[in-house]
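Researcher: Quick one. two chains, 787 residues in total.
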Amino acid sequence: MPTSSDDRVRIGDAVFPKPFVNGLEFNAPVHGTWNIVHIGFRIPEAHQIYICADNCLRGVVMTAAEMGELGRFSSVVLEEDDMTHSGRIEETTIEGVTDCLNKLAKTPPVVIIFPVCVHKFMGCDIDYIYRCLEERFPDVVFVRGFMDPVMQKRGTTPDQRLRKAMSDIIPGLPADCDTVAFAGSDMPAMHNDFKTILEYNHKTIKDTAGCKTLDEYLSVGRSSLFICQYPAGLMATQAITKRLGRKFIYAPLSFSFDTIQNELTSSALDIPEDFFANGIKTCVDEVKKLKELIKDTPVAIDYTVVPKPLSLARFLLDNGINVKTVYLDGIDGSEEEDFGFLKTNYPDLILHSTIHVSDRRPVRSIDKVLAAGQKAAWFEGTEYFVNMIEGGGLYGFEGITEFLRLMEDAFVNAKDLRDIVPRKGLGCRSCI
Amino acid sequence: MKKTYRILPVYTGDVSGAASALYELGGMTVIHDPSGCNSTYNTHDETRWFDQESLIYISGLNDIDAITGNDEKFINDICYAAEKMKPLFIALANSPLPYLNGTDFKGICKVLEEKTGLPCFYVNTNAMHDYSKGQSEAFLSFAKRMLKEPGKKITNGVNIIGMTPLDYTSTNIYISDGHELVSNWALNTSYEEVMKAPQAELNLAVSSSGIAACKYMKERFGIPYVKGLPWNGTVRDYTDVERKASKNYIVGEPVISGSVAAYLKTATGEDYNVIATTEVTDGLLLDCDKRCHGEEEIEEAIKDAEIIIADPMVKYISPASARFIELPHFAMSGRLFRKQIPNLMNPEEYLNGLK
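Model:
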């Protein structure tokens, strides 16, 4: 069965994992998700330096500016002469980074360097660049970032590789069996069953998404167990736990009770009596409450709100919620089972691309729609939406319950779509 | 080092400039690029994206297509989109990787014209220049490919050339002496309006981005042009107002800065020098003015300043002793000061106290 060349497809007719044909791409004016600038600033005290052409640089420098973080950001502009003279791009990169660092009042302890697509296509000797920089600045730890969106569609994304590079600087400190880290996510864990159980077990909890100082960030290396709850952070978590010889659990926010129980049990932590039964009851009660409140109001979900949008759609549909549309452009491998279930049991559920050329002219309903996620809200033109990205740090029964409460709140209280969704990096400071 | 930036943002790039110039003209602009350019453009460089439709897309280039130069996919994707969205023309913009592998955009345009039956033109960008060059190339390419000989002239008809939200917030320009506005290139405008441009008798270049198109229309249609803002409705080339060297500086785009300098000279007798920080400057500066490239050169040029008129970001590299008049410029500080950007035609609003 071919993938759809249209902007939408019934899930009954859709192909896993790529329901849509690649073509020219539209970009919706919805920017709550994080980019590499937001992610890089998760290392406290780190300075970021981008080396790229004007037009590409503009996006990242304005991201930093809108965060009020230009003091931790520098840039080096690449021009035509850097492409046409042999060795010039290495020279410009090395001398540019050196100049940027020399201009700072204080040399930062960590510097994240971002070469770009052009460096790769010019065959630039990246190792040579880092050797030179490390000789010139022996007290600086260089994090090897990359801004190469040309690699976005194949292999590992710049986002995944940045998270790994950021975790590479965490040292292998002696493991403390009472310390556990949340790692790889942008959202600090909250309303999260893992957190609740860790506290019940009197564990010290670290979270790379919420470190205030560099020392705190580096002390994550003491953790005996790493919990990753965001797909883009999995590669980083796998790499650091392999390097340090530690265990990890990968548990992105799921709406399957079985999955939650299995994942929590795999932690080998003590779990309070009746924790699962109580958790399930709370979720069931809350989803009934949601149903009573919104009745048959159409619901739209997008891929930015939770890591597993099809798991969410399945849970809501199974509980009588009128989910009409899921906005996504591809389906994560971990959602294959949910995809198959929905295809069989809810074949009329619509999968809707967010980048198709037709999306420039979204067809919007005049009826009230409840949306989960900023993109779903924009495409549906609704002010009733859950304003969350990446699962918001939620997990487990408490996470599901909180998510349902947010849906109830979103249904009742309209939000200023126009003001909210163009702001970049939900959860970060926004100066616009 | 002139290529490094400690605190200033770079200006909006040429690709965004091209897209901004063509935004309202009913065509389809395709940027041959991975996802970076489109997101940057619609987030930071385009004020109309949320409210006003425009067919601006990226090719979504991946590494294999870039290495192999997979023009066939690019062409097929454009044909599909054109069939679906029915644009009036197709414009192609370049970016670093197709620039590096020497993609034949003019050849692709010919193929697209044959396949779609639509006019198609290339805007010479590569993401390594600022918006003024991108807009300039876009207006010029549009004029060359799209304009036709005028059937009749409109007496005292005027075109405003070089106006986009990257420089301007308002199109409310009053021109006296019985002049009639024929077209605006290209803010609050339309395809039908700009296609009337050859009927005008005068072009008014209100930014450096408009100069190339004005020169072209002068050569092809015999339309003379004047550079600068028509203060109090009077059309007068700002370079005709003599200015001398001083320690008062206006930092920014040369035509707007030069016009403000001319206004101040006329209104107050005081001299202001232009520190032109965008790329297109040929014939736009007086001897007392200066072109600067990059943060370091700007900082050096204004280090002895007594008064500076500039985007608020420039304050970070200005001497503390200088009096600083904020004139936010969307192409520099983007959304940071968007709400404070004044109508450039009302200088009393932003030059408070300088009279």
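Chain B touches chain A through 66 residues (CB under 8 Å).
Researcher: Thanks, that's what I needed.
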